[in-house]
Amino acid sequence: MKFTLNRRQTLLGLGATSALVGFGLPARANTKVNVGVMRLASHAPSFIAFERGYYKEAGLDVELKYFEAAQPMAVAIASGDADFGITAMSGGLISLAEKEAVKVIGGALTEEKGLVGAIILASNKAYEAGLTHPKELAGKTFGITTTGSSFHFMAHKIAQANNISLSDISLRPLQKVGAIVGALSSNQIDSWAIQPSISKKMIAENAAKQIGLVSDYAPDYQVTTVFTSTNNAANEREKTQAFIKAYARAVEDYNKAFVDRTADADEVDAIAKICHKYVESDLPFEQAKNNLVEGSMRINSNLALSLNSVTEQLDWFKAEGMVKGNITPEMLFDTSYVDVI
């Protein structure tokens, strides 16, 4: 599905690519900004930009605000408790866009063939009972944070590709990632799909078994997006551009160190040490570093947005009746800040 940019988006978008290179002047010095984050490896650029002073150099005085699921972060953006968020599209986020409260302005984490990506897991008990492939998920339980979360969409893509009706899989909303980890580890649910920094750790600790990869069923899936309030997108362009500039710098550091592996050993260590302060801080550094490197997923350069993927997600939410059918791509996406791919 394609959509036509409105006049404002077209005019502003003409400079999107060049703006990401130079970005003109920084935001007003010490502009206070709250950034919504989760303690996941996929949020590494948030921590890198914070620790390396990229936000400050862009004129932003950033405070990190922590969340445990996508939906509460979307609510915080809409209410003004946070200015920018990086997380998956959820039904709540889309409904807030219909109310003209939030806008998706960029893309972040993405599934890419050739990289491990999110891993489909089975509990040890379910695996021993025969759940060794996603095609056997009918009649099984699958962990999600909330209805309409990225985990819900991944379950849909997995079921669709294996000719299983999603209604034949029992989805278990457990609100928090940590709660799903606990439920799978203790055999209270049968399956789940999660990014490799968590799934590989669970596999290594013999807390779950790998039965597939999400990228086999959802290649080019735009897992997370960058979003902000409609007011920021429309009326605080300087601040919004400054945030994207700082975050894009950190994305480049992250991809070079963990994904493309073109950074030298000292740089890899430096990036890993930053992330270790926020992610898997309970583990010894070398173990956490290995998990970060081996469990990395690409984050889109310059926060480019995979428009086909996010539009597919919007269409699915509408088809499932989780959001209103009258919500259009123009209501949800402001494509004037980054390239679309």
TrEMBL record:
Gene3D superfamilies hit by this protein: Periplasmic binding protein-like II
InterPro entries linked to this entry: SsuA/THI5 (IPR015168), TAT_signal (IPR006311)
Keywords: Signal
Pfam families: NMT1
Keyword Signal: yes
Main location: periplasm
Family label: Belongs to the bacterial solute-binding protein SsuA/TauA family.
Name of the protein in its database record: ABC transporter substrate-binding protein
Taxonomic path: Bacteria, Pseudomonadati, Pseudomonadota, Alphaproteobacteria, Hyphomicrobiales
